[in-house]
Amino acid sequence: MVGVLPSVANECSGDSCKNVISMPLMDDMKATLKADLDVTNMNNHLKAYIEQEIQKGVETAMKDVMRQLIDNKLEQANATIEATVHEELTRIGVTYVRWGRKGCPDGAELVYTGQAGGNYYNNEGGGVNNLCLPNDPENGEHQNYDNSQVYGAEYNIDGNRKPHGMSGNLRYKAVPCAVCHRKQRSSILIVPGRKTCYKDWNVEYKGYLMANHYSQKRTDYACVDVNAEPFDNKSSYEGNSVFFYPIRTRCGSLRCPPYNAEADIYCVVCTK
């Protein structure tokens, strides 16, 4: 409560009066009187209230600043993570060999182009996998020992031995190949017996399964592009080579249906 000091003849002055204010009063006689009011408690309450409000304002402002700083940092961190992931995805990819063609499908990067090769079709030992040999080899030194295992590959495809849908006579012509890189893909799948990919997979190219003749030594199956082309215009039976014969199904342990007897075998190269 505001205290009222007794009236004094002289006005209050000095340090003792710093929290005292004078207020005019009216008595019953309508005469002007003056009272000195002690506002110390009011000042203390007002000061405490102001300090409390300032503290609240500062805390609120600091919270807003900290929240903004955190939001900005999170945005920067998310942007950095997104940019890093995008950059990594541009580098990640899969490679595959496109047999029977010198180039890659649209959108795929050509790593190198070359000639298909492998082991001599009638060798008893050695490797069995087909090789895509680059056209710009870095050759080793001549050796005297006898262990030749890398030969060129030739098509053995003609009018009587040609899958439906393939054009031209490719018999005894060298087989080209291309190593391709498809960016932003992590998996590759070669599906035998189909010419389309399964859901969510992307077609790189389609063709027919080929390998050595069954009477010759075994080789890997190769998915030869449906639009196969020759390596060059040379056409002669070399004999000392690996052959790419079209192959067909044989029913029995292979269930027909769903397969057809003595039929071409499609293949498709898929990525995801």
From TrEMBL:
<protein>
    <recommendedName>
        <fullName>Short-chain collagen C4-like</fullName>
    </recommendedName>
</protein>
<dbReference type="InterPro" id="IPR051077">
    <property type="entry name" value="Ca-dependent_lectin"/>
</dbReference>
<dbReference type="GO" id="GO:0005615">
    <property type="term" value="C:extracellular space"/>
</dbReference>
